[in-house]
Give the backbone structure.
Amino acid sequence: MGKGDIKSKKGKISKGSFGNSRPRKVNKVTTKKETSLLGKLVDKVKDLVK
């Protein structure tokens, strides 16, 4: 259960791989275009609800 054990988190860190014990971090990055489109869509839905 050390650096040589590729099934453990420490072993995956030393090898540089990912898996169940060391998942990849998922960062969702939104662009200005996406946020402006989303804002327009929210405004239209709010108008329809009123």
Observations:
- Residues 9-49 form one domain.
